[in-house]
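WARN  no MSA supplied for this record, continuing single-sequence
INFO  ligand: FE2/S2 (inorganic) cluster
INFO  echoing inputs
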Amino acid sequence: MLITVTVNGVEQSADVEPRKLLVHFLREQVGLTGTHIGCDTSGCGACTVLVDGVPIKSCTFLAVQADGRGIETVEGLLSEGQLHPIQAAFKQEHGLQCGFCTPGMMLAAKALLAANPDPSDEEVRWSLSGNICRCTGYMNIVRAVRAAAATMREHAAADEPAGDPAAATAEPAATTAEPATTVQSRS
Ligand code: FES
Ligand code: FES
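INFO  complex generated
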């Protein structure tokens, strides 16, 4: 079946088997191996990617379900050779040890921070509750996400036009992103 997807901003078409999982499509056909497979049963979150900005577990999502959608993988975080603030914060705050869970953690964090630019520890823990880490004990991961949030808020403030009254009164989104889901059907 022919599908067309936009992966990290690049549109591409490919012929895929109807049963092919998105994680296998990304790793084997697109060649992006940063998306990891930890369990293959939707338990660990290592395979988390963003589909139209929503974190999903790509080990339980068919490639054909992604037809016409935008996918973001960990490789898409790097921009013009610069680490994304989330990547920089994980490095700075020692939010990883072996790194196996890290791509999924960072993408789940990205979805959280898009919905909630200033999450509490509890909100970070809830949003990452679908992602398991066997190394760090989580404290540094939570610290890294909150550090990234602070950096991203600074960047957003610096980008706001001076004297823009709308910007001065705008309320941040108060929602908390849901943990990565297993399968979402297209509506
Ligand atoms: S590989 Fe573990 S949730 Fe997908
Ligand atoms: S850093 Fe090793 S599993 Fe998370």
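The CA atoms of residues 124 and 142 lie 6 Å apart.
INFO  checksum written, moving to next record
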